[in-house]
């Protein structure tokens, strides 16, 4: 999964296609588990735009999207937020959420 900058995230939103942005902090154990699940989903959905970022470096995105904790998955489609996930329940749950 590629590390995205704010500019890359904004470009993904503006494309209008479905895009997922995984937010984490490096010392978060739950974030590490969620990342492994997201990497599986990324392999299952190769057409989906998926990026990740350390929330410490994307303060504006965190503020604008009212991020309350990490891990967090933001899903946008058509330029609008369609989901904000804090509980990464399982790979099948994430797959169903993100498939077209």
Automatic annotation (TrEMBL):
Residues 4-85 form the Thioredoxin domain. Transmembrane segments: none annotated. InterPro entries: Thioredoxin-like_sf (IPR036249), Thioredoxin_domain (IPR013766). SUPFAM superfamilies: Thioredoxin-like. It holds the Pfam family Thioredoxin. This is Thioredoxin. It comes from Lysinibacillus sphaericus (Bacillus sphaericus).
């Amino acid at each position: 999964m590629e590390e995205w900058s704010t500019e890359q995230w904004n470009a993904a939103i503006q494309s209008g296609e479905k895009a997922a942005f995984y937010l984490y902090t490096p010392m978060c154990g739950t974030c590490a588990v969620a990342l492994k699940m997201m990497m599986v989903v990324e392999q299952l959905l190769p057409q989906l735009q998926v990026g990740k970022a350390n929330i410490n470096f994307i303060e504006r995105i965190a503020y604008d999207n009212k991020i309350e904790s990490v891990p967090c998955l933001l899903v946008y489609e058509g330029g609008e937020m369609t989901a904000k996930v804090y509980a990464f329940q399982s790979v099948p749950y994430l797959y169903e959420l993100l498939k077209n």
